[in-house]
Write a structure and sequence with these properties.
The chain is of the alpha/beta class. The protein contains 25 helices and 36 strands. Among the domains are: 202 residues, no CATH class; 135 residues, ANL, C-terminal domain (GMP Synthetase, Chain A, domain 3, 2-Layer Sandwich). The strands form twelve sheets. Strands 9-8-21-20-22-23-24 form a seven-stranded mixed β-sheet, sandwiched between helices. A five-stranded parallel β-sheet has the order 11-10-12-15-16, with helices on both faces. Helix 11 links the parallel strand 10 and strand 11. The longest helix is centred in the N-terminal third of the chain and has 25 residues.
């Protein structure tokens, strides 16, 4: 019996060989007729240098290019390969030989298609079955007849049988994405076509080819409809088959110089052990699992283990309070929680297990809590608790992957909205993984062998897409950063870059603004020559921070990509790259839409704003693979938030400016969401916490600029007329409420006690006025005619002035 891993590698090599002959033809079909240049779906063109295209990198899905009959005919030829790719069973040598013969037929078919397009006659005897392969090119449908019975192998193609015997892939593919995607009948619906980046954009990112848009008004789309895959196979097994000892993770622990390296084989084994542990304790396909852990290889394994068995993970940032954690567990109806006894960050111990204990008391759906040991300290255990490492040690290092539909849930991630209650953003399997992998490669110019350093926490979407899924799908070495930018000193990032040889560094403007206040010697003392690309994420980066990051950290030689995207988009949507070699990068500007992302600026009446040098609401006019599919348990809320404001468009909630050159600059949020150190938080969520105080009937929270954090909350608080507590006592209790209900980072920096809030006649709070007051712009309050009582403005200004005077005297 042959080893299924070895067989998978052989088959992947064969697929590359079979389809190289068709590359030019596919490029012609999806582009402008030239293999070198293809029109992007965004309207741009790109002539790509050879070094920009990684040899044989992505298995490209072409389901949208084939008729149903063609898919069935070609699929039937590859039924046995499906079993091998899924690793469901080993193939006997006899079965392998049969598969080789069928693959030879596929090779012949591709050769025949090529010959037909070159003008040679195609002979199809009447007694032989044939099928039609259709390709949509604009409004033209091109069809060719393919004889699926018997063809001779073209001499110009490599010998298939020879390569079946070779147990190596001469050039590694960083992402054999969806190599095992099949339709519901088990047919392979993919073809390995080594395309230019432009052609790949047309095929994979363009919804016209690979998506089924069921109802754009309701945000209902399906990417690679009918396809199946397992995400963990694409992130682990594919690379273990070729490079088992390649380093997958470098865990940069809190104490510098104590990093731990984990190979792809080791990560696969821990993932399978953890997956088997979950299964043995009742976690099944479709169950939800909460992960409340600090950044570690075991946290990554927990995510991949869920993907392995078809469970849905929801990672909760390990700084959230017990009540915030409980709210997310309750909403997702999680069956299990994975956590640590404690966390370690910035030299401090964080009591993770204690937080989970308090949370699960409010969560009857939780049946078990898996506890990993991050520290040697003992913590109290409950009847629900299971020692994770002990259970994993009992399990096998193999776990058959669960085949998932392309649109099954992969994970949900909670993000703040303007209505108070956090929303569980749902991402699905194939489209999300594809988008994370493509953006990771092309935005950051990832090349095989690079060490990718994204310093985000896995509790946020940046950690999902650019610490875990994107890099691992591409076979990269990715850094897990457990510490803080200033522990034990302000040189921590750059010492880590030198020691680990990081090539791409991706971080938040908040951290950069913090570090630029220290002497440049903290940067210059470390060797940063390994750096090739810098990136910023989470919020717009200001010019001062951009210039320092580019000139001091990057020595003016590393491209700095300011990226715009959201939890809802799954990956980068606007960034300076990809672009032509030598294309300009404008400081502090996101600039260019990614492949397939069609941007639109909308005015207040819902009309598209044309031309350049204009501003408006930032929308996206067509689906893309990484697009969130829904809000868990509340699709109407998803529609109301993203699809309803501008029917037919996805509304980001951000405003943007389009320059004279056609580049995009993000101007900030247009709703009641503030961005604290790169993390979105709804003002309503903070207000809900404050309003629970018995002395406080009403509050209004706004965001104001902050030199380091970008924005911070500013609270205007109304007290009851008969309140019995001193203002200072109330404020201290309010601070504690926010820390308990949400997290410490959500505590407003300022509290101003006012008699009443500025409201319209319909009762709506005019937050615009509060922002003007809190930012000392009272000379230009704008139109206040809709206020129920304009005199309230004077009251609030006086209260703010007293507050500022008291603050200055402290």
């Amino acid at each position: 019996m042959s080893n299924p891993h070895t067989f998978q590698t052989k088959l992947a090599s064969i697929m590359d060989i079979l389809t190289k002959a068709a590359v030019a033809e596919f490029n012609k079909v999806v582009g402008d007729g030239s293999p070198q240049s293809t029109e992007l779906s965004s309207g741009q063109t790109e002539n790509e240098s050879p070094n920009k295209v990684l040899e044989g990198e992505f298995l490209t899905l072409v389901m949208g290019l084939l008729t149903k009959e063609a898919r069935e005919r070609i699929g039937k030829l590859m039924e046995e390969s499906s079993a091998a790719l899924h690793l469901e069973k080993s193939q006997s040598e006899k079965e392998n030989e049969a598969l080789k013969r069928k693959l030879q037929l596929m090779e012949s078919q591709l050769s025949t298609v090529r010959g037909h397009r070159e003008g040679r006659a195609l002979e199809t005897p009447a007694n032989r079955p044939s099928c039609s392969v259709g390709v949509q090119v604009g409004d033209e449908y091109r069809g060719v007849e393919i004889d699926v019975e018997e063809f001779s192998v073209k001499e110009s193609l490599p010998n298939v049988s020879q390569h079946c015997e070779e147990d190596h892939d001469p050039q590694p593919r960083p992402a054999q994405l969806n190599s095992d995607i099949t339709d519901k009948n088990g047919y392979i619906l993919s073809a390995a076509v080594q395309l230019s980046a432009n052609a790949r954009a047309r095929l994979l990112i363009d919804h016209q080819y690979c998506a089924e848009v069921c109802d754009p008004q309701l945000g209902r789309i399906s990417w690679f409809p009918g396809g199946q895959l397992n995400v963990s196979v694409n992130c682990l097994d594919v690379h273990v088959a070729k490079h088992p000892d390649r380093v997958a993770l470098v865990w940069e622990r809190d104490e510098p110089g104590t990093e731990v390296k984990v190979t792809y084989r080791e990560l696969q084994e821990s993932t399978c052990r953890l997956a088997n542990t979950l299964k043995r304790h009742g976690v099944q396909r479709g169950d939800r699992v909460a992960i409340y852990m600090s950044v570690s290889p075991l946290a990554v394994a927990a995510m991949l283990a869920c993907a392995r068995i078809g469970a849905v993970h929801t990672v909760v940032f390990a700084g959230f309070s017990a009540e915030a954690l409980a709210g997310r567990i309750q909403d997702a109806q999680c069956k299990a929680v994975v956590t640590c006894n404690q966390g370690v960050r910035g030299g401090r111990v964080i009591e993770l297990k204690a937080t989970v204990d308090a949370a699960v008391k409010m969560c009857p759906s939780v049946q078990c809590v898996f506890v990993a040991q991050r520290t040697s300290n003992r913590v109290p255990m409950t009847r629900l608790d299971i020692l994770l490492e002990e259970e994993m040690a009992k399990e096998r290092v193999e776990c058959p992957p669960e085949m998932m539909d392309s649109e099954d849930m992969l994970f949900m991630l909670y993000t703040s909205g303007s209505t108070g209650k956090p929303k569980g953003i749902v991402h699905t399997q194939a489209g999300y993984l594809l988008y994370a992998a493509l953006t990771h490669q092309y935005v950051f110019d990832y090349q095989p062998g690079d060490v990718f350093g994204c310093v985000a926490d896995i509790g946020w979407v940046t950690g999902h897409s650019y610490v875990v899924y994107g890099p691992l799908c591409n076979g990269a070495t990715t850094v897990l950063f457990e510490s803080t930018p200033v522990y034990p000193n302000p040189g921590r990032y750059w010492e880590t870059v030198e020691r680990l040889g990081i090539n791409q560094f991706y971080g938040a403007p908040t951290a950069i603004r913090l570090l630029l206040k220290y002497d440049e010697s903290w940067v210059k003392k470390y060797d940063r020559s390994s750096l090739k690309t810098l990136g910023s994420v989470g919020e717009p980066i200001n010019h001062e921070a951009w210039e320092w990051f580019y000139n001091v950290v990057g020595d003016g030689r590393c491209p700095l990509v300011d990226t715009w995207w959201q939890t809802e988009t799954g990956g980068v949507c606007i960034a300076p790259r990809p672009a032509e070699d030598g294309a300009e990068i404008i400081p502090a500007m996101a600039m260019r839409p990614f492949f397939g992302v069609q941007l639109a600026l909308m005015d207040e009446k819902g009309a598209v704003i044309t031309g350049n040098d204009v501003s408006g609401a930032l929308c996206i006019s067509q689906p893309w693979p990484g697009m969130a599919r829904t809000i868990y348990g509340d699709h109407q809320r998803f529609v109301d938030a993203y699809m309803k404001p501008y029917p037919g468009y996805y509304f980001s909630g951000d405003g943007a400016y389009r320059s004279n050159e056609g580049y995009y600059q993000i101007t900030g949020r247009m709703d009641d969401v503030i961005n604290i150190s790169g993390h979105r938080l709804g003002t309503a969520e903070i207000e809900d916490a404050l309003d629970e105080h018995p002395e406080v009937p009403e509050t209004a929270v706004i965001g104001i600029p902050h030199d380091i954090k970008g924005e911070v909350p500013f609270a205007f608080v109304v007290l009851k007329e008969d309140h019995s507590l001193e203002h200072s006592v109330v404020i201290e209790e309010l601070r504690g409420l926010v820390a308990t209900k949400i997290a410490k980072y959500a505590i407003p920096d300022h509290f101003v006690i006012v008699k009443r809030l500025p409201k319209t006649r319909s009762g709506k709070i005019m937050r615009r006025i509060l922002r003007k007051v809190a930012t000392d712009q009272t000379g230009d309050l704008g139109d206040v005619s809709t206020l129920d009582d304009p005199s309230v403005v004077t009251e609030i200004v006086q209260a703010y002035t007293r507050f500022m005077s008291q603050s200055a005297s402290k």
